[in-house]
Amino acid sequence: MAVVEELLQFPCMSTVLSAVLFLLFFYLILSSSSTLTQGKEPPGPKPLPILGNLLLLDLKRPYMSLCELSKKYGSVFTVFFGPKKVVVLAGYKTVKQALVNCGEEFGDRDVTPVFHDLNQGYGILFSNGENWKAMRRFALSNLRDFGMGKKRSEAKIIEETLYLREVFKKFEGKPFDTTQPVNYAVSNIISAIVYGNRFDYNDPQFKAMVNRANENIRIVGSPSLQVYNLFPSLGPWLKNWKLLMNNVESNVKEMKELVKGLQATLNPQDCRGFVDVFLTRKQSAEELGEKDSLFHDSNLIYTIANLFAAGTDTTGTTLRWGFLLMAKYPHIQDRVQEEIDRVIGGRQPVVEDRKNLPYTDAVIHEIQRLANIVPMSLPHTTSCDVNFEGFFIKKGTCVFPLLTSVLRDESEWETPYTFNPAHFLDEQGRFRKRDAFMPFSAGRRVCLGESLARMELFLFFTSFLQHFRFTPPPGVSEDELDLTPAVGFTLNPSPHQLCALSRS
Q: Burial, 134: exposed, middle or buried (Cβ in 10 Å; 0-12, 13-18, 19+)?
């Protein structure tokens, strides 16, 4: 105090000290105001150095570990995947608030090392900024032109059901694995839209491409690849990473060959599919000298890869869950087939029939809900600082919208862990929509192929339940059919065989 009093004897020092004290006071006010504005960060378990919270997570089924943590820490919480900080959103209301009501703030994609390896920042699924906007806008517009979710694609799907039915018939009611034929059929729908033609199921090039793409989805969800995302320098020493890179290289090479063939026969006045339209737009940009055009070979190849990955595995996987669940619950299969026989009879099902098949429609929705194909969605990242649900989340924070917590939200579903088509039926047996039905995600990053996937699921499912009865292999009871999903980025059924008995 004596020193301060002594300094105050000098007028200039008194002025300087007053200014310093004023600035200090002003800084404290601002800091306090900033803290109040930002709020506190989401709670979560205390992380260990380097490992973060990995010891609390089952890397084979991280979505289950995160659901358990949400019971302790709430619907918005922080967890550390190694050194990486992630904010997890759990429950229908919280996920909807983020993805729909705060779509801009939560709308960017978090591009992990493995997803960068797969896409190089191009395409639709794992790009951001102008590249994402331009590619998504172009894809949506042109996929619609080629009939995605309309009559034009309905005809392609119906045609493909006929080819797949012939494959099922060849097994003559004997047990078989549905995986490959179903994936080939669904992949052919995308092929017809993207390339303008389908492939024979025995085409070795086609089979290899589909099999590699599906293997990649399984590998991406493996524990070793999750560790790679946290410590990318480990890549060259990981068997799964090397296999993934080899598969990607092979598929890119095959796609370039297919594009090259289409380029050689391109007629801008008669485009056969999505690739033709893209090549025409690319050619136009080159002629106009657009140096910064986003319509280049890399965006074309990785957009094709995205369309196949998003449009094949998820729909094919959902169909296989459907067939398995029908074999598991024959009384539900009975009701579906009774309704199809009564309403449609022996003719080919069409999309227009959906409104007259409420129970069948409810079963398809319940298959999607219980199958829970993409339990953690694709990772998002915040595009700016966000004050959300009383918490402050910094710009650039990775966010997991936990879709499994939406599809099995105990406050939204009467029996969330049970296969129960009544979730989608009212008291009069009419189909009813449910807000918490969110298998395609929501908001800016909602699946762009949702309308096509819904059409495929309805037409394939009704057509196959019309012609086949699905049962366990001889000597296996319904109770023995295992509903535990296999490990992977998407949740496929565990390896199994079924019998498809002809009903005709």
A: middle
